[in-house]
TrEMBL record:
Family that this chain belongs to: Belongs to the MipA/OmpV family.
Subcellular location: Cell outer membrane
Identification of the protein by name: MipA/OmpV family protein
This protein's record includes keyword Signal: yes
Domain of life, per lineage: Bacteria
Signal peptide (UniProt feature, chain positions): 1-25
Keywords, alphabetical: Cell outer membrane, Membrane, Signal
InterPro entries membership: MipA
Organism of origin: Vibrio zhugei
Membrane-crossing segments per the record: none
Amino acid sequence: MTNISRTILMAVASMALVISYSVHARSDGVAVGGAYHYSSDIYKDTDSHNEGFPLISYRGEHVYFQGVELGVGLMPLDAPHNILWQVTYDGRHFDPDDSDNAAMQGLNERHATGLTGPELRYSLPVGQLAVKAALEFTNEHHGYLLDASWLYSYRFQGATGLTTQIGYQYNSSKMSNYLYGVSESESAQTGITSYDVGGSGSWYAALGGFAELTSSIRLFAGAKLTYFDKDIYDSPIVTHEVTHSLNVGVAYRF
């Protein structure tokens, strides 16, 4: 898979829930469109990403597909409380050739992976709580993540709406070390100090919005900030404590 393809998939994955609410806003059916993505990169001396990409999503009564995530709900998706099973593409990766740093170019590649697991969604007096667990199943690191977030959607009078999401994601030691650690063998071949990350994670906040041009055509946009734990930021291959991303696009709902 090319670097551009991985970045496109990561763009959709990073804001899947916010984009899904912005595109569908509780309406069922298929939506297709296109979007532009910008994101900064966490790795040392690695440029930010700017790409356009196609977008396709589907929302039924119990099943949804949003770019890189497939989910099935025990209850209808509009139910106030639900348990879902999800299969997700985790687009976080590192290609040594993307870095301008000679030592970084000698590291092993970190591949994108597949994740699967349950998610609980529980409606609160204000907003919705989402708690999920996901295990890596593509034989790269056998790690897992835990994620808890609060999501609030508001539709204004007329054809516009906003969605905000605030949460924390914990990565197991296997996952964190795969993405941000430096093994003894890598240290020997690059001169970069070996580093063991351990279990760690990141706080994040996302904001999305939409505006309907017609009953079928919808403009949407979203932004996300991610603040990484000190154990990740202290890695010798990481250069940013905070990363940011932006998506803007248009979707046609059938």
